[in-house]
Amino acid sequence: MPWRSDPRPYHVWVSEIMLQQTQVATVLPYYRRWMESFPTVADLAAADESELMRHWEGLGYYRRVRSMHAAAKQIMSEHGGEFPLQYDQVLALPGVGRYTAGAVLSIAAGAKLPVLEGNTQRVYSRWIALRVPPTDRAANKLLWDVAARMLPRSGSGQFNQAAMELGALVCLPKNPKCDQCPVHHHCRAAELGLQAEIPGKIKRIAYEDRTEFALILSREARGATQYLARPLPDGGRWAGLWDFPRCTEAATESVDAAAGWLSQQLGTEVAAGVRLQTLRHAVTKFRISLHVHQAALSNAGVAADRTAPAPWQWVSLDQIRTLPLSVTGRKIAEFLAADDQSFLPLS
């Protein structure tokens, strides 16, 4: 992995943030593109947020990239652009917790600090045969203590990486490969035959089914088809990313109701048309069916002559390709691009 061959603090920090809630295979191409565009803290701090979001698009958990941007600016202002190597200073950076600080400093600077994340939680829980879920406060504290006691006198970074890799490749959540584990003779769970029961099970999310509607408004202007879109507001889902008109209100049960919502947004009547596609995805506790419909303004002249009210904008497909989009927004854009010859604005 590239951050192992070049374990500088900035590189390790970026990799650790990307790896949160995300598998290594998914992260690798994102990491390489990121380092090509933002090879230093200074490059990251100076970047426009929309460009950062564009590079992050598809990784999800977009708060991470905003925190990285804020942290880079803090490093520039408080540490002269050099990534800090003191634990308290790293922990003070936006988006950095105990695990990330320990991982960066142990791997990049050799600090004797433990790490505890999903893989090492499982390894240490089985090591001591801890049946309580690692998310339990007392259990979590105990596991941090175990992780600290396990550290060797030197080489903490290598040890932490080995422990994480052991959990990722051998000490698996299901069907652990105990016969391939180099320390299974010292594992309490293996001794008691409790591997399948440990770690203790965490209560699964109870998903709620939800229906949402996206309305595709288009017009012909400057020799190209333009579509209505907007940057999503701060504090909401996918804040800072762009999306097509999308009604996410829980009470909206029909496309006509969604058209009414958009009419209020734009100050002019919107009529819903045929359904173009349905996208299904999950966000937090919701399992969402997104119905994408063609739509039109009741007064075609308004679309042709009028600038959309802020924050809405008319944008071409070429412009859309350069914007940071939500995952479903990107899929809609790809659909429109593929169907560009046959997708005609309503009149």
TrEMBL record:
Q: What class of enzyme is it?
A: hydrolase
- Enzyme Commission (EC) number: 3.2.2.31
The GO biological-process annotations, alphabetized, read as: base-excision repair; mismatch repair
Functionally, this protein is described as follows: Adenine glycosylase active on G-A mispairs. MutY also corrects error-prone DNA synthesis past GO lesions which are due to the oxidatively damaged form of guanine: 7,8-dihydro-8-oxoguanine (8-oxo-dGTP).
What protein does this entry describe?
Adenine DNA glycosylase
Q: Name one GO molecular function term.
A: adenine/guanine mispair binding
What is the phylogenetic placement of the source species in the record? Answer: Bacteria, Pseudomonadati, Planctomycetota, Planctomycetia, Pirellulales
- Alphabetical list of Pfam families matching this protein: EndIII_4Fe-2S, HHH, HhH-GPD, NUDIX_4
InterPro entries under this entry? A/G_AdeGlyc_MutY, DNA_glycosylase, Endonuclease-III-like_CS2, Endonuclease3_FeS-loop_motif, Endouclease-III_FeS-bd_BS, HhH-GPD_domain, HhH_base_excis_C, HhH_motif
